[in-house]
Amino acid sequence: MTFPAIDPTERCPCLSGDTYEGCCRRFHAGTVPAPTAEALMRSRYSAFVTGDTGYLLRTWHPSARPARLELEPERKWRRLDILSIQAGGPWDSTGVVAFEAHYREDGLAGVQGERSSFIREEGRWLYVDGE
């Protein structure tokens, strides 16, 4: 199985309301860093959708980053719901984003919920961990 290619003119998988080109693609391409913890969380979700393990690893804080990452292509991510945001703005140094990511796998619906912690270092937001 493979991951879907996203047309830049289609709606972004993170459901921000923008096109993929105007939203997460620029972060995935490294054109600009995500300006907030929420934007990084959304772009990481989109990276799970597209199978972009390189982006996921690049945006993982070195203190917690795994040596490698294998995604499950049979898991089809369907929807992202942001439940709450604590700090994580352009002038903050830390932030927490709670979310639920909905998926289908083997014909069954599932949901993964997490409170993700982020830190901003040298102007870049990085994922630290989740509970």
Automatic annotation (TrEMBL):
It comes from the Bacteria. InterPro entries: NTF2-like_dom_sf, YchJ-like, YchJ-like_M. Residues 36-130 form the YchJ-like middle NTF2-like domain. Signal peptide: none annotated. Belongs to the UPF0225 family. This is UPF0225 protein LJ757_06245.
